[in-house]
Amino acid sequence: MFNIMSITLKGIFRDRVFHGILVVAFILPLIPVISTLSMRQVTELSITLSLSLISFILLLLAVFLGGTALWKDIERRYTYSVLSLPITRSSYLLGRFFGNALFMLITATLLGCVAAVVVWLVASGSPPDRQVVWMNFFLAVFFDAMKYILLVAVAVLFSTVSSSFFLPIFGTISAFLVGSSSQQVYDYVNSQPAQTLSLLTRKTASSLYYVLPNFSAFDLKVNAIYGLPLSLKGLFLTVVYGLVYGGIVLALSSVIFAKKEMK
Amino acid sequence: MNAIEITNLSKTYKGKKFSTVEALKNLNLTVGQGEIFGFLGPNGAGKSTTIKALVGLIAPTAGSATVMGVDISSHEARRHVGYLPENPAFYDYLTAEEYLAFVGKVFHLPESLLREQSERVLKLLELWEARKRPIRGYSKGMVQRVGLAQVLIHDPDVYILDEPMSGLDPVGRALVKDIMLELKARGKCVFFSTHITADVETVCDRVGIILKGELKSVEHVDKIMTEGVLGYNLRIRTRNQPELVERYVAKEDLEMVMQKLFTAGDEISLIEPSRKSLEDFFLDIVKGKIC
Question: Three-state DSSP class for B282?
Fold first, then answer.
């Protein structure tokens, strides 16, 4: 598995898609200038922009690198030579996933550090009313990375189901959109105004809430921007949720991939 | 212990509109260590299906097979195998050297042995100069050579090669044949599929002919070549004529004709067997003349 992880990382660093996405990161140093557009909350805006940019870059990486990792291997027939080596299908799949996950963590760490410098520069020039809580800032970046690693696991699952390009890419994008709003939908269908909806609609929405990933728990942007206190229990439960959900998705992917015929 | 043992191996694919395609029907075959086995068959006969089942890329519908005594359902069976896919493709962002290092590590080769083996096979396959270039810049023949290099690097007991000569120039083909013969001399098993009967004639001990998923014949190449003699071409210089004369004699008439020629005092300068080629043998099976 570590050998697969290692070549996955090499592949990403040499991938043109990654180079393209990396160009987006050059917007980060422009944030101090853009933040001055806000007359009152310059630091808050710089944190918002930095975290949003990191989030956007990680989303692109999760969709285009995570979503194509297996598909590309099958499409380009690399799997014939790799899966005929004495490695199990599971270790190949997990190697591909953890290679991508490690890369997401490295990217998030690097971008987080650069963003921290940018925010620090802005905060030095325009001191905010509330001090920047750096722990919240870094936790927001870390949980964002966790969210997109979970999305990579979902992308891997789609890749094992379909041999085409469309499901891994568009399925992953759809899972991200639905996963980002499933909490709000769940809260709504369980609220008083939603009782007018049919029982089937409410049950379907509730079932989808449990089946699809819930990404909103990983969003700590507001806590980072305004320095709001974080609940340790909430963070712990989110980590457990991410690990359990990711574990189930990867186990399911392994089972499907083990049965896949390399015709 | 046989290198490869296949017992009643079958593979059925789901076709279009709920139909089924029997790609492989009850295949039984054994290939010994130190043997070169050629697997012949027209396109779609089941050669690649057999090979893919042996290396775990597809699961057989029925039957079983072992490689060096290990069931093919276990990934450990592949520890004994070097597999070259048909029209191979490798991670093209890696260099040949990096890819070989990856394969060597998967096979747990010690670092020093890996370096030594990598240099040896890269030089053997004339990839040494190009070893630090990404595979994406290689020609088709060079990619095929990388395929052979990754097969050789861990020195397995069994070599399963799907169309190994494909994409190679005559020099490359001759090199592959030499490699096969050298492997055989070292007691290794080489199982390869091909369309080219001449390749089988030159290097193989036995040949298996597969047609529409059924193994139609397994024969020693020597036997086919011996039994395939139809007659002889004689080059004769008669007492009356100084120029050489060519004459064809049927196999069963050879003794009698030679006796006559000796009696007449004629000189025989050449007796050349006129034989049925392996290609004729193969075509006879394909056309149903031999069952």
Answer: helix
Question: Once rounded to an integer, what is the mean pLDDT over residues A119-134?
Answer: 80
Least confident of B25-34, B64-73, B250-259: B250-259
Q: Given the DSSP bridges, would you call strands B36-40 and B206-211 parallel, antiparallel or unpaired? A: parallel
- Angstrom CA distances, B122 to A82, A170, B150, B152, B161, stand at 19, 42, 10, 10, 18
Confirm or reject contact between B150 and chain A (CB < 8 A): yes
Residue carrying structure tokens 């004729």: B280
Q: Are strands B189-194 and B36-40 parallel, antiparallel or unpaired?
A: parallel
Contact A11 B91 (CB under 8 A): yes
Q: What is the pLDDT of residue B213?
A: 87
Which of B52, B81, B86, B93 is most worth mutating to test chain A (most A CB atoms within 10 A of its CB)? B93
Q: Which of B58, B76, B107 sits opposite A262 (nearest CB)?
A: B58
Spatial distance between the Cα atoms of B232 and B152, rounded to a whole number of angstroms:
42
Comparing alpha-carbon positions, the chain A residue that sits nearest to B105 is A3
Q: Does B71 touch chain A (CB under 8 A)?
A: no
Q: Per-residue confidence at A168, pLDDT binned at 50, 70, 90?
A: confident
Q: How, if at all, do strands B189-194 and B62-67 pair?
A: unpaired
Asked if B138 and B257 sit in the same domain, the reply is: no
Whether the CB of B45 is below 8 Å from some CB of chain A: the reply is no
Q: Which of A91, A119, A138, A105 is nearest to A257 (CA)?
A: A91
pLDDT confidence of residue B291: 53
Total structural domains within chain B: 2
Domain span at B111: 4-225
Residues B67 and B197 in one domain: yes
Between CA A257 and CA A159 the distance in angstroms is 9
What residue of B is the nearest CA neighbor of A72?
A: B91
Would you say residue A130 has pLDDT above 80? no
Per-chain mean pLDDT for chain B: 86
Cα B81 from Cα A59, distance rounded (Å): 40
CATH number of the domain at B159, please: 3.40.50.300
> B86 in a domain, yes or no?
yes
Judge if B244 and B196 occupy the same domain: no
CB A114 within 8 A of CB A28: yes
Residues B56 and B139 reside in one and the same domain: yes
Higher pLDDT among residues B218 and A86, named by residue: A86
Predicted local distance difference test score (pLDDT) of residue A71: 85
Among candidate residues B57, B80, B83, the one with its CA nearest the CA of residue B68 = B80
